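Re: duplicated header lines in exported structure tokens

Our pipeline writes sequence and tokens for each protein into one text file. With two proteins the header for the second block appears twice in some exports. Here is an export where it did not happen, for reference. First protein block:
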Amino acid sequence: MPDAIRNLTFTLVEIATFFGAAVIAMLVVWVLIAYVIDITQKKHAIRRNFPVIGRFRYFFEHLGEFFRQYFFAMDREELPFNRAERAWVYRSAKNVDNTVAFGSTRNLTHAGEVIFLNCPFPTLEEDAVPPKEITLGEGFARTPYSTSSIFNISGMSYGAISRPAVLALSHGAKEAGVWMNTGEGGLTKYHLEGGCDLVFQIGTAKYGARNEEGALSDEKLLQIASHEQVRMFEVKMSQGAKPGKGGILPGGKVTEEIAAIRGIPEGKSSISPNGHPEIRNVDDLMDMIHHIREVTGKPVGFKAVIGAYGFLDTLFKRIHERGLEYAPDFITIDSADGGTGAAPQSLIDYVGLTIKESLPLVVDKLMEYGLRHRIKVICSGKLITPSGVAWALCMGADFIVSARGYMFALGCIQALQCNKNTCPTGVTTHDPELQKGLDPANKAVRVANYAKKMAYEVGVIAHSCGVREPRELRRYHAHIINDSSFSTSLETLFPTRQVRPEYAEEVVKLVQSE
């Protein structure tokens, strides 16, 4: 018996030695080949000057996308979202303790930071009330939409995100009582399966609502509107990731199913027009909004990154000239600092106004033209924590929507692989091997937890400010740190606008009708 064991041991050692020698030999051959290639090529200076070793810079650069956020970045310094923000979302989604100790790690003297003013007599629990219900399209749409939800799911198309991600969001939204925007990729059975309220987004390519020529189809609109879950329609003019450029879906994500839903060729990149061909001015926009509302009977609004100031003045003047029935039921304002979509860096970094400037601008213009009661305001753009949502409510938003916040709730780790079909958490990939890591049932619970926790903690801020519910927050409840490290009231920076005299009578009639 000992001889048999000894012989087996010798055999295993010989095999291991053989394979070890083979691996070393192949490694030596690879190094020699790589060396020759590197010193003879003229494209990469690093590899030519430091053959073989220079190749590792690409490997470490790639690893940096994943490990930078864990080992090198401080809690509050990383972009687009820092560790503290992501950690709050993760803990909320998991429904675990979200308290911290030993003081804030936030720089409370940094210019631009928001501070809420606590009331000496905060709202007691027995005096608090649920957020009030808001109705969109009342008096203008045959089927207006009423909801008390504050923090909803922004547009993410099936195709841009995966099937299990859509399922998890749909079920989670239903559980939390929030709505879900379909994104421009069309309505699917996965959106409908969860039973949540839906906002159907019409992008520039009219995916899911187009005829054979690619134009908007009334027949398709009626089919979509026949679903009771579809509560509103949103015309997407532009989005934060790429103002002035259409949507981009890489060919690797255009599966047979997605191609059928969108009406596009399978396996080929889908690039939407950078604008609606039939919308060239504010009258065209008003005509389309009015037409979709007449066909579907549902509230209709538009989504845009705000840029040229004159656009708002022209639009609001024409609404008064043509009639309130041509007004959008809502405006979704997107921040111009990027989003979930793939886009040229020049657009993400440099084009359009951020939400900190565009939200007060739109709200104030609506007040000035006497349209604040007619048109509701939906706010989108990096608002994934209670402070951001509470700030938006102070500034006058009726609703807040988020895409990346809910992606974190699904398990996103900010790997920055959204446009490559290699998302390691299965959120933005159609690779079955990567998708299997995202269990829709488990993640739906996390989505619901996140939405509920957000509503609760925004309520905590509101009660600390002395109001009964979040929608009672006003600009005087918050301060912004200025360049001198002192704070200034939002009310001082953005004083309440008065209605122009020529529109005052119309405002009185509109308020009385409500």
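Second protein block, exported in the same file:
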Amino acid sequence: MISGVSGLNAQSQNLGVISDNISNLNTIGYKGTVGRFSTLVTEAATDTRYTPGGVRFHPTALISKQGLLQATSSSTAAAISGDGFFIVRDSSSPGSNDELFFTRAGDFKPDDDGYLRNTAGYYVQGWATDREGNLLDRNGNTTSSNSSAVSDLQVIDVNRILTAAAATTNIELSANLNRDETAVAGGTNVSTTLGLDYDTTLLDGFGGISAGDSFDITHEGTTTTITITATDTLATLAAKISAVTGVSATTTTTGTNDTMTLTGAFADQDVTITNNNNTPLTALGFTGPFPATLSSTYTAGDLASGTVAEDNTMPITIYDSLGAAHTVNLQLVKLGQNRWAFEFTGQTGTDELDAASHPNGLIQSGILTFNGDGSLGSYTDSSGNDLTNTNITANWSNGSNQSEITLDLGTIGFQDGFTQFGAQTDPNGNIVEYTTNFINQNGAQAGNMVNYSFTEDGFLEIEYANGVKRPVYKLAIATFEAPDEMENHTGNVYRQTRESGDYLLREPGLNGAGNVVASALEGSNVDLGTEFTNMIVTQRAYSANTKTITTTDEMLDELIRIKR
């Protein structure tokens, strides 16, 4: 009889499990429970004796079993596809010692204060992010997801940033610079020797020059020695000099009193000429004293000051941290073959660039070089430092934060940004010396929040009236070694237990955490057909156990009748 009673109790509990499963058939994120049974033995059986013990009931939660994902129109609903749980608390302003709960119920909606909570009233937690989506701790410093960073989590608040301006942080440009543009002339030095025919007069023996005399040309740290031979004329000497990188030589061709002009090949680079063996430069009448310099005719800032005229200007509208618009210009001038200078400039004055930080409105100067196929060869500042992925700084006088801007002019070695080809023609056949393909910048003026939603990456993204979309939070996902061992709690949430192991914080889709599915909900993982089948089996088992009790009762009656 006691064994039968234990069977009734076990089947009754199993029916309770089935009832709970059916009653939560439409509960978002509900995880069903299945009944398991094990024998209860009071004494070991022998060949001649058996002692009935009964049965023990074991409810087993199917927490790790995925439920069906269902689309929803709610922009703040989210489901997890894969392992992990949303981290929630029962207060919108929890203390550091308040308990954490875990749930798959992602039917989140903002309360009166803008905090996201689900139907059961639990508030979802995540990391605050910066504009680029980097995780932030509670002090606003960049952090990362790890098992010890729970103190960095915050209750997600859709009203965190109601109005936002987007300061320009990146400018992308693509344009073609005219290969045939006349370059700014470099520094020059002209000989003044009389009685010299450029292509017939031998230099050996002329004006004190002898074969074997030499002079040095130094350009960008490289020195080349030019030696005069017995057959050299002014024309052949000019050819030798022009073969040296950084300098060119030309002669007059009048036939009498011809002269040679030495010119720096690049307007921004000095060239030094020095007598080496005897004084051939002096004999030819070049201006000394030696060493003499073919001085650069362009220095950084000359475009901003107007000292040198630009070949092309590209105006760009950018925004500071307060949403104020500023017009800046990318000015360009050709310095020599495959070499251009650029200056990024703006206006100084009230509410514009700070004049002390930006003399003549100069924000950044630099050099562009191009390869033989027209692709970008290098992108550096005027000192030769690489500017690829480097921030350019602008300081404003209107109280806004300093702007840090990446000026993206293309990929080195590719033709996806700035290129250098010959002038093009428009559909009407007109020459277009400079072609701008696109100018993109990511700033915007101030705008109010108009919408918000979760993204597939788990970000809560807010959209503003100015068209800016900005991530402000990222959902945190907790994973467990044994999630089925977690403890159920009212509100369709779970608690961590010793058996489940400690939680680990993950970003969605990383390190074993499931992916966030935006505008979706995870349904109950209960199968109604299975529950009805289990209900029938349980009812039959319960009925059968009652038969063992009634039969035992009849046997006891018979035993009592013996005494009668």
